Amino acid sequence: MPASTHTVTNQPPPLVDYDIFAADPALTEAVARHASPEHAEAVRAELSELGLGAGSAEAQEWGRQANEVPPVLRTHDRYGNRIDEVEFHPAWHRLMDRAVSAGLTDAWSRPDGQLRRTAGFYVWSQVEAGHGCPVSMTHAAVPALRREPAVAAEWEPLLSSHTYQPGLDRPASAKAGAIAGMGMTEKQGGSDVRANTTVAVPLTGGGAGDGEYVLTGHKWFCSAPMSDVFLVLAQVAGDGGDGGAAGDGGAGADGGGLTCFLVPRVLPDGTRNTFRIQRLKDKLGNRSNASSEVEFDGTTWARRVGEVGRGVATIIEMVAATRLDCVTGSSALMRNAVAQAAHHAAHRSAFGGILADKPLMQNVLADLALESEAATALTMRLATAFDASQGDGELAAQERALLRLAVPAAKYWVTKRATPVVVEALECLGGNGYVEESGMPRMLRESPLNAIWEGSGNVQALDLLRALQRSPEALDAFLAEIGKARGADHRLDAATKDLLAELSDLDGIEARARRLVERMAQVLQGSLLVRYAPAPVTDAFCASRLGTDWGTNFGTLPHTLDLRAIMDRARPEVP
Ligand SMILES: Cc1cc2nc3c(=O)[nH]c(=O)nc-3n(C[C@H](O)[C@H](O)[C@H](O)COP(=O)(O)OP(=O)(O)OC[C@H]3O[C@@H](n4cnc5c(N)ncnc54)[C@H](O)[C@@H]3O)c2cc1C
C-alpha cells in the first residue's frame, strides 16, 4: 500500500527466504572438502534443508519473538508448592524442536558426525543464538558421560535423540529425548573451579546403590535450568583430587576431591529432585536463554560420573566440545553480520551510486568478509579434527594433539573477533543498524558471550601455555598442520618463522600469552586459507593479518587488492 505522504524507496529487500548454507561459499566449500566422499552428498542435502529453514521468514520471526519475550521463572505453583520451572515463549520451543530434530545434538555416532553437526550448528544458530546453549550442552555431555558406561547407556540415547520433548512431568527414561546442562561456576570462583564448595556425600543404606550421593551447595551460573539433567562438580570429602582449572586434565586422586555428578531434575520414580532455582540472570544479551542461580539442599540426589577426585578431568570432555561450539557460534555470528552488511550495501544507494560500488565500502566489506571467512575455515577444520580424533591409530592421535592447541587458540581468537566485526557490520547499515528490528543490536549484545563462558580469554591463553609445556606432541601436530602450506606464500612463511622464535622464548611467557595465542590462531587461519581459499582472499589475508599492510580499523586493506571479489564472495544471493 503506498504511504500517503511519500513513497518508500532505497531500502533493501528483507534478507529472508534463502538457503543460508548454500549462500555461504566459505562454508559449502569447507564441508565439501572435509566430508567423506561417500557421505558428501547426503551431508550437503541435509545442510541445505536446514539452511532453507534457517533463512525462512518464519524461523527468523521465531528468533525475534524468543528474544522479545524472555523466559520467566516460576518458583511455585498456585498452591505454594515449589516447582522451579521456567516458562518460555512458544517460539523458543519451535527453535529447540527444529535444532534437535535436525540432529544438532547427535554427533558422536554418525559418520562425519562432528562435521555435519558443526556446520548445522553454524547455519541454524544464525536464526537465534540463545537456544544454542542447551543444544550445545546436550551434545557435549555425551563424551563426559562415557566415562561412566552404565550412566552413558541410560542417557546417551536420550541426549542424541532427534525428538525434542520438554517438560518435567515424568522421568527422562519415559521420554523420547532429553536436554542437558552443566553446573561448575560458583559465587567464589568460575575459572578456578578448585574453589567449588558444593559438597557431595555418599548415600548409604536404604538400598542406595554404588555411586549415589546427595549434594549441598549452590551454582552461581546454571544455564538452561529447565533441562532434564545436569553435569555438576562437587567436592567429595577426602584428601584431595585432581585440582586444576577448567582447562586442566587433572593429576590423579586419592580418596576425595572435586568430582563430576549427574543430577536429574526428575527422579526415576517421577518425583522432583531438589533443584532450587533462586533467580534468572538479567543478562546483556542471550536473552532468550534462561541462565539461573541454583541451590542444592542436602537432599539433591546425584550420581557419580567418572572417578572420585577426577571431576575436572571428566567434565573437561564436555567443555572441549562446548568450546568448539563457542568458536562455531562466533563464526556464525560474524557470518550473519557480514551477510547482512553485504546485502544492505548491495541494495542501498548514496551519493549517486550503490554503496557496494563505492571503493571505501568495498574495503570495509572485504575486510569484514576476510575475518569471517578465516573464522569459518578454522571452525570447520576443528570439526574435522574432532571427527578424526575419535578413533585409534596415528591419525587420530595426531588430530587429538592438534586440537589440544587449536581449540584454546580458536576459542580465544575467534570469539574475541566477533564483537569488532559485528560493530563494523552494524555501521554498514547506517542508522538502521542501530535499530532493534534490523537484528544487529541483538547480534551485538550476543557477541561478547562466547569469549566469556567455557573459559574466558585469559584462561584459554593460559590453557594453551599449559598444553605447550606438558604436551610436546601438540606443538608437533600444530607445526605439521601449518607446515602443509609451507612455501605457498612468503608472508605465511615469514609469520611462521616469527612464531617459532616467539615460541622458543620463555621470558615473560605468561604476560605474553595473549600475543602468542593470537599469532598462533592467525597463522593457522592463514595456512588454511592459503591451502583452500580463492587467491583474492588468501592474498588479502596474508597481506593484512600476516604481513604488516593493514590499519587498525576494518576497511584498511591495501587498495591494490581485489576487494570486489572478496566482497562479492561474501554477499548472499537471494533468489
Ligand atoms: C550468560 C552466562 C551463562 C553461563 N552459564 C553457565 C553454566 O551453565 N554453567 C556454568 O558452570 N557456568 C556458566 N557460566 C559461567 C562462566 O563459565 C564463567 O562466568 C566463566 O567461566 C568465568 O568465571 P567467573 O565468572 O568466575 O570469572 P573469574 O574466574 O573470576 O574470572 C574473571 C576474569 O579473570 C580472568 N582470569 C582468571 N584466572 C586468571 C589468571 N590466572 N590469570 C589472568 N587472568 C585470569 C578471566 O579470564 C576473567 O576475565 C555462564 C556465564 C554467563 C555469562
Rg estimate, integer Å: 24 Å
The CATH architecture category of the domain at 173-312 equals Beta Barrel
Percentage of residues assigned to helices: 40-55%
User: How many E-type strands?
Assistant: 11
Which ranges are low-confidence, i.e. pLDDT below 50, for 5 or more consecutive residues?
Answer: 244-253
- N-to-C series of helices and strands: HHHEEHHHHEEEEEEEHEEHHHHHHHHHH
Distance between the first and last residues' Cα: 23 Å
- CATH topology grouping of the domain at 173-312: Butyryl-CoA Dehydrogenase, subunit A, domain 2
GO molecular function: acyl-CoA dehydrogenase activity
Organism: Streptomyces nanshensis
Domain Acyl-CoA oxidase/dehydrogenase middle: 182-298
InterPro entries: Acyl-CoA_dehydrogenase-like, Acyl-CoA_DH_CS, Acyl-CoA_Oxase/DH_mid-dom, AcylCo_DH-like_C, AcylCo_DH/oxidase_C, AcylCoA_DH/oxidase_NM_dom_sf, AidB_N
Describe this structure in words.
The structure is a single chain. By secondary structure, this protein is α+β, with helices and mostly antiparallel strands. It contains 18 helices and 11 strands. Among the domains are: 173-312, Beta Barrel (Butyryl-CoA Dehydrogenase, subunit A, domain 2), CATH 2.40.110; 457-553, no CATH class. Strand 10 (349-350) and strand 11 (353-354) form a beta hairpin. Helix 6 (132-145) packs antiparallel against helix 8. The longest helix has 37 residues, at 311-347. The model is unreliable at 244-253 (pLDDT under 50). The site of flavin-adenine dinucleotide has 25 residues, from strand 3, strand 5, helix 12 and helix 13.
